[in-house]
Design a protein that fits this description.
With 572 residues, this protein is an alpha/beta fold. The protein contains 19 helices and 17 strands. A hairpin with a 4-residue loop joins β4 and β5. The structure holds one RNA strand of 74 nucleotides.
Length: 572
RNA sequence: GGCGUUAUAGCUCAGUUGGUUAGAGCGAACGACUCAUAAUCGUUAGGUCGGUGGUUCAAGUCCACCUAACGCCA
């Protein structure tokens, strides 16, 4: 038994995430958390919504709501959808929480005290009419490059040219349309990551077991060009965590907030504090996960994220933790994913392209999505979602191989022996061979799961299901029943025990279906198998069961075609 | 324009440090079985590994160039 801290990259608040976002962090993190819990480990699995920054403000404005209210509502929506997918967070927090405010300010203060923060004067556009600075997307004007009159301060959407707000011709406020603008000096804080470069480099070198994808991205940022660059960690916005030096005011920083990328990863820690508060626990209960001086020294910490998040998790956030000079728990293993593409292109939140989490749950139960996404997780390279592949995989794996196994064995038993585990005969050579095979397969499955090889785990699990069908096919109790009903009873007994085994082993991937099978079998003990010889005898003769409803209805050609059409365009 | 990633059977993907006949699942064909969601089990057929040229006794696996797709940056 070990202690595992697991975090998933925190999804941004402005709307519902698509399946590419889901498979890139939350879903594999959930798989790992469920597996470790099933193996009896103590797990703290945390996730939250990332609520600060310009896009949140703009989305709120578009929805006609105060940003705080908008975020609160969207948090509830995302939380509900996470539940719908069976994401088993111990806590789903919010980066706007009081805990994160306090911690972020605390870290900034510690970093400043240690000399890791410098002040920089910059020129920014200020709107007199709005009484505020206009960063990036808050300013519009005519593109100096192509003449498009709705170019944004950071980029022209027409010619895609990256812009500086001061480049725009006839600039105006995107908030009020006012052209009463001026360029003002404004001061900002920069995190001096560059002076921690060697420490970060050494730290990453010590992580020899990290995926190549992860270390290569980190190394690139560390060594390319001028090397690791200092990052601005403040912004002239209203929505965010006010810049304070610990609990003190920060002269010259009045009215400014921390940049979203500074406070978002700190929420991983704050989320544990939120968890403690929500459960009426003392601070020591969350600190034992995060402070190596308060019990976290034996914690194994694993982060899950898409590849776009790697630099922040390998460099910026560690720089924050190291720079604080305090004994915070650092990540031990970092599992990053590539992108999932949709029918030849990218999933896109801004363009509304692809399948979004709420829509997915409207058309099919979570287990279908969990299975396909995990068994096709973009681990080594980008991977591709197509409706045809989805339909075929799900029908074959879930309906035909697993679902039908449970169906055939329970129905066969009911028709020949009744709805109770039959008595008679005993396991023989065929059964010994099966158990021996399954023991090897189980070991491979466990190894793959422990190493977070998601696709491989799915393939091993599927092979275990298929081995069950192979067994039934070869011993053919329906034939033997005519000549040796006792031995047929033993085979059927084993078949029913196999169904329970499959349910237990599948629970990290398919929590809902797993539970359905166990309920139908009246199986109360769901503990992970230790020794298959004894495990496969635990449903004893006379143990009553029910034939479950169809576990996985097949996706019909009509449905696949219908959905393919429905999701071919752009979401409203 | 710079940097980076990817390019393996019809489809989705595996292929450790270069080494005998390149693997899996799906799909296809054929066969077996009939308990089951027309499910299952078995067999077979399909790639010379994007292209060209190198290094090597030996390359899908290293190098160069080219092509294509994607991504990041400018």
């Amino acid at each position: 038994m070990a202690r595992h801290l697991i975090t998933s990259a925190i999804p941004y608040i402005n709307g519902i995430k698509h399946l590419g976002n889901l498979v890139g962090s939350q879903l594999p993190a959930d798989l790992y958390a469920r597996y470790l819990r099933a193996r009896g480990h103590e797990v703290m699995f945390l996730c939250a919504t990332d609520e600060h920054g310009t896009p949140a403000e703009l989305a709120a404005a578009k929805a006609g709501k105060p940003v705080a209210e908008y975020c609160a509502e969207m948090h509830e929506v995302q939380s509900g959808i996470a539940d719908g997918f069976g994401l088993s967070f111990d806590h789903f927090g919010r980066s706007s929480s009081p805990q994160n405010h306090a911690l972020t300010q605390h870290f900034a203060g510690r970093l400043a005290d240690a000399g890791h923060i410098r002040e920089v004067s910059e020129k920014q556009v200020y709107s007199n009419a709005d009484g505020r600075f206009l960063p990036d997307r808050y300013i519009e004007g005519t593109c100096p490059n192509c003449g498009y009159d709705k170019a944004r301060g950071d980029q022209c959407e027409n010619c895609t040219k990256q812009l500086d707000p001061t480049d725009l011709i006839e600039p105006r406020s995107a908030v009020s349309g006012s052209t009463d603008l001026e360029v003002r000096e404004t001061k900002h804080l920069y995190l001096r990551q560059s002076q921690m470069k060697d420490q970060l480099d050494a730290w990453i070198d010590s992580k020899s077991d990290w995926p190549v994808l992860t270390t290569s991205i980190a190394k690139k940022w560390l060594h390319d060009g001028d090397g690791l660059r200092d990052r601005g960690i403040t912004r002239d916005l209203n929505w965010g965590i006010p810049v304070r030096r610990g609990k003190e005011d920060w002269p010259g920083m009045e009215g400014k907030v921390f940049y979203v990328w500074f406070d978002a990863p700190i929420e991983y820690i704050a989320c544990a504090a939120e968890w403690a508060e929500a459960n009426g626990r003392p601070d020591a209960d969350w600190e034992r996960w995060w402070r190596t001086d308060k019990g976290a020294d034996d914690v194994r910490y694993t982060q899950f994220m898409g590849k776009d998040n790697v630099p922040f998790h390998t460099l910026s956030f560690p720089a924050t933790l190291i720079g604080s000079g305090e004994p915070w728990k650092m990540v031990d293993h970092l599992k990053s994913f590539n992108y999932l593409n949709y029918d030849g292109g990218q999933f896109s939140t801004s363009q509304g392209r692809g399948i979004f989490m709420d829509q997915a749950l409207e058309i099919l139960p979570a287990d279908y999505w969990r299975w396909w996404l995990l068994s096709h997780a973009p681990e080594s390279s980008d991977s591709e979602f197509t409706w045809e592949n989805f339909q075929q995989s799900v029908n074959k794996d879930l309906a035909d191989v697993l679902g039908n196994f449970v169906s055939r064995i329970t129905k066969f038993c009911r028709s020949r022996f009744g709805e109770a585990v039959p008595q008679g005969g005993d396991y023989g050579a065929d059964e010994a061979a099966l158990i021996s095979d399954l023991t090897d397969m189980l070991a491979r499955y466990e190894t793959a799961m422990e190493q977070m090889e998601v696709r491989k785990s799915a393939a091993e699990l599927r092979a275990i299901w298929a081995r069950g069908n192979e067994y039934l096919q070869s011993v053919a109790p329906w034939t033997l029943f005519k000549t040796d009903p006792g031995q047929a009873a033993a085979q059927t007994r084993l078949g029913l025990n196999l169904a329970r085994l499959f349910a237990v082993l599948s629970s990290p991937f398919l929590p809902t279906a797993s539970e359905k099978i166990l309920t139908a079998l009246n199986a109360t003990d769901t503990s992970w198998p230790d020794d298959l010889n004894s495990f496969l005898r635990e449903l004893e003769p006379g143990h009553g069961f029910d034939v479950p409803d169809v576990l996985f209805a097949k996706i019909t050609d009509e449905q696949a075609e219908d959905w393919s059409t429905r999701f071919s365009g752009v979401r409203d």
